[in-house]
Write a structure and sequence with these properties.
Layout lengths: L1 E5 L8 H13 L4 E6 L1 H8 L7 E5 L10 H7 L4 H10 L5 E4 L3 H12 L9 E2 L2 E2 L7 E4 L9 H19 L5 E5 L10 H12 L3 E6 L11 E3 L2 H26 L3 H20 L7 E5 L4 E5 L5 H16 L2 H9 L3
Parallel strand pairs: 1-2, 1-4, 2-3, 4-12, 7-10, 8-9, 8-10
Antiparallel strand pairs: 5-11, 6-7, 11-12
């Protein structure tokens, strides 16, 4: 198995990306990791270590976080992200990981790797943390701002296959994000999608509300990219605000400091539940190759967990399974 890693993408590249890759290489010696990026910088970070399952692939260019995706991918053909995508396209790698520009990665997937037959729009599918530690696979959370009912149907099928194959959930419950649980609730998009999902070869449980997502009211959450991204950012902002308020309150008096010391183990457990690094990466589903999007601020732990997740997806033949389900084969 070969996994290409965009070593130059993300806030902490290449330092923490390379360190995470090294830890993954040591953990899984049967997996070859292709570090794509500035060869001299990567080799300096390897510090002379000769790992038999780590190969450096030189890429002289980098796509920055603020670059316009389509222009960047078309003009920077020698960037680390595009070269990693070509490795997947040419079957020299089974998967690629990147913590770089999300739009550029989506564009790389579309223009370099290509879509699966039968898929109109690939979807970004991260795991939202839940209180029972299982998480909810959510798609789409920002790759496509506008969607048609048919797109949501494809998201549901792909998400159900991913949850079943990668996470081992038998008959994953698929829910449609809406403003209420009643079947006729919502806008024209959700009403039309509801009818399609009822007829789909999935375990559709109907409409679900955002307030119940963190207690895992479904295993796969379906929504358009606009509504999904608004929900995601609201959850992230709420979590950050609550933890900041708790920190300020516990530091206010000597009594609260004592209370904080007592509660600290539980608070750490709660923070871990909300930690994106536990899951590592989000797949771009619907492509004719496996691409994992890591969080822009991914650290060593996140990179290693992304490799772990990618290994499972490759082993269970995720892309082939989605293609078979979509095309009825």
């Amino acid at each position: 198995m070969r996994i290409a890693i965009d070593a130059m993408g993300g806030d902490n590249a290449p330092d923490l990306i390379v360190r995470g890759a090294v830890e993954a290489a040591q953990e899984w010696p049967d997996t070859e990791l292709l570090l794509v990026g500035d060869q001299s910088r990567i080799e300096s970070l390897l510090d002379g270590r000769k790992l038999p399952n780590v190969t450096v692939c030189h890429a002289p260019d980098v796509i920055g976080p603020d670059e316009e995706p389509v222009k960047a991918v078309r003009r920077k053909k020698d960037s680390s992200m595009v070269i990693a995508g070509r490795l997947v396209k040419e079957k020299q790698a089974d998967c690629m990981l990147s913590a770089g520009n999300t739009g550029a990665l989506m564009t790389t997937g579309l223009l370099v790797v290509g879509r699966l037959n039968g898929i109109e729009r690939p979807a970004l599918a991260p795991i939202l943390p839940t209180m029972d530690d299982v998480g909810v696979l959510s798609l789409d959370l920002g790759a496509n701002m506008d969607a048609k009912p048919e797109h949501l149907l494809q998201y549901a099928i792909m998400g159900s296959v991913y949850r079943s194959k990668v996470h081992g959930i038998d008959k994953p419950r698929v829910g449609l994000l809406n403003v209420g649980t009643e079947a006729r609730k919502g806008n024209e998009l959700t009403k039309a999608a509801y009818d399609l999902l009822e007829e789909a070869p999935i375990h559709f449980i109907g409409n679900v509300e955002a307030r119940d997502v963190l207690v895992r009211n479904c295993d796969v959450l379906i929504c358009d990219g606009f509504a999904g991204n608004v929900m995601l950012k609201a959850m992230e902002g709420t979590a950050n605000t609550v933890f900041s308020a708790l920190k300020e309150s516990f530091a206010s008096t000597w009594m609260t400091k004592v209370a904080a010391a007592i509660m600290m183990p539980k608070l750490r457990q709660l923070k871990k539940k909300m930690d994106y690094t536990e899951h590592g990466g989000a797949p771009l589903l619907g492509l004719d190759g496996l691409i994992m999007k890591c969080h822009g601020s991914s650290d060593v732990k996140a990179v290693k967990n992304a490799v772990r997740q990618a290994r499972i997806a490759v082993q269970v033949k995720l892309v082939q399974s989605i293609a078979a389900e979509i095309n009825g084969k």
